[in-house]
Amino acid sequence: MFFTPFCSRLAAGLLACGLGISAAAQTASPGLPPDVTALLARAKVPPDALAVLVTDAAPALNGKPAPLLSWRANAAMNPASVMKLVTTYAGLELLGPSFTWATPVYVDGTVAGGVLQGNLVIQGRGDPKLVQERLWLLLRRVQGLGVKTITGDILLDRSAFAASTQQAADFDGEPQRPYNVVPDALLLNFKTVAMTFTPNPGNGSASVSFEPPLAGVQMQPRVPLSAGQNAGQGSPSLAACGDYRAQLKADFTDPYRMAFNGSYPVACGEKVWAVAYADPASYAERAVAGMWQEMGGKLGGRVREGRATPGQAPAFEMASPPLAEVIRDINKFSNNVMAQQLFLTLGQASGGPPAGGASMEASRAVVAQWWRERMGGQEQPVLDNGSGLSRQARITPQGLARLLQTAYVSGAMPELMASLPISGVDGTLRRSKSGVSQGWAHLKTGSLRDATALAGYVHSPSGRRLVLVAIINHPNANAARPALDALVNWAVKEGSL
C-alpha cells in the first residue's frame, strides 16, 4: 500500500516530463528515441557517431528478453573514462575488495636519544591514495619510533614500477592539469599542490596557503584583492567572482617559485585550486623534506632516490585504504592517475612484481587474459593505460554491457555499483541535468575532446534493472551530452514515450 501511490506519482511525473522538442518524432532515426535523435541534431552530431545498448542487467533471470535498444552496439568506440569500469571490475575480481597496498618503511641504522645514525627508507609499492594526511601519519609513525633527527638521508624507493617515458604533457600539452599526472610507485598527494585563497578585506589581500609544503619552493603567501569589490555586503556573488584563476595571472612554470601577477576577487570567498607541480620528478623528495621539516624533524643529509636493502625487515608498513574504497574515488571522481596505479598493480596479480617493476605491457596482458576467461573472449577491448585517458583505447557497447552484466550477478556487484556516480546526486554526475532520472542511475561518465560516454546501471520504478552503455565519438561529442541524459531518462521509463 505504501509503494503503490509513490510509484504512481513517479510514473506520472516521468511520463509528464519531456524535453520540449515537438518535432522530434518527425526527425527520429529508426531505432533511436525521438528526443535523443533531436538532441543529436541540435548538437550537430550524426546518429552514426553514437553507439548504444540498453538491456537487462540479468537477462538469464528474466527469460532473456531482447534489448530495449541496440544501436551500432558492436562498433569499436573510444570510451574515454568509461574504460575505468574494466580496470576497477578486474581489480575487484583479481585482487579482491579488501586488497590494500603496503608502503614499507625501513630504518637503516641505529636509533638512540632521538637520533637515527643512518638512513630512513620509504619504499613505494603503488599506493594510489598516499595523500598529504597519510604522508603525515607515516612520518608521525617514524617519530613514534623515537626518531627526531636523521643523520643520513631519507631514501625513496620507487623501483616497484618500471621506468617509463610517459610525461604529463604527452596527452594534450597541459602538464599542470591534475588529470595528466603520471603514475609512480611512490605517488604522493597525486603530485599536486592545493592552494586555498581566503580573502581578508580588512588588509586588502587574500592569504594563500599551499598544501603540502614543498622544500625549496617559494610560495607567495598573499595576493591583492581585486579593486572595486565591496566585501562587506551579503554573500559572495558568483557573477562578480568570474574566472578567478585567470584574474590571478598565476605563474607555475618555475619549479622553485609559485607566484601570482594578478589579483583575487573578494566576491569569490574562499576557493581551493589544485595544480600539478611543474617538476613532477622532484615532487616526492620536496614533499617528504617539506613535511619532515614542518613536523620539527631534522635531516643531516637530503631526500633522494634509493633502494631498500633486499631481505631487510621493515620497521613498519603503511597500509592503504581497501580497494573497495579506492575504486569509489576512481569511478565517482574519474581519477586518472589512481586508475593507472591500479592498472599497473594488476600486472602483478598472477605473482610478485615482474623483473624491472610493474609495466603497462604486463598489465595489458593480465587484463586481456582475465577478459578471455570471464567474458568468453568476445568483444576484447583495446587497452592502453586503464584510465581512458587515451586516443587508442577502444571497446564496443556490447563488450561493456557484457562486463556490466557479468558484474551484476557476481559477488563484486555491490562494491562496483556503489563506486559509480549517482545521477544528479554525487561524483561526476552531481550537476547532471538528467531530470526524471535523478537518483535512478549509477553511471560512469567519460569525456575527452571528441568523446563522451555513459555506462552503468539504470533502475526503473517497476523494479527492473537495466544496463546502459552509450558512447559518442565526434568533434562535437560534448555538445551532445543532453542526448545521453535524454537516453537515461528514456531507460528509466523502460522505453515509454
Secondary-structure-derived class: alpha/beta
Q: What's the domain count?
A: 3
Mean pLDDT: 90
How many angstroms separate the termini?
27 Å
Proportion of strand residues = 15-25%
CATH architecture type of the largest domain: 3-Layer(aba) Sandwich
- Helix count equals 13
- In terms of per-residue confidence, which ranges show pLDDT below 50 for 5 or more consecutive residues? 1-29, 228-237
Fraction in helix: 25-40%
Sheet of most strands: 7 strands, mixed
Shape: globular
SSE topology:
Elements: H1 3-16, H2 34-42, E1 50-56, E2 69-71, H3 84-94, E3 102-112, E4 115-123, H4 132-144, E5 149-150, E6 154-157, E7 192-200, E8 205-211, E9 218-219, E10 222-224, H5 238-241, H6 244-248, E11 250-251, E12 257-260, E13 271-276, H7 283-294, E14 298-299, E15 303-305, E16 316-319, H8 323-332, H9 336-346, H10 360-375, H11 397-408, H12 413-418, E17 441-448, E18 451-459, E19 465-473, H13 481-492
Parallel strand pairs: 4-5, 4-6, 5-14, 6-15, 9-12
Antiparallel strand pairs: 1-2, 1-19, 3-4, 3-16, 7-8, 7-13, 8-10, 11-12, 17-18, 18-19
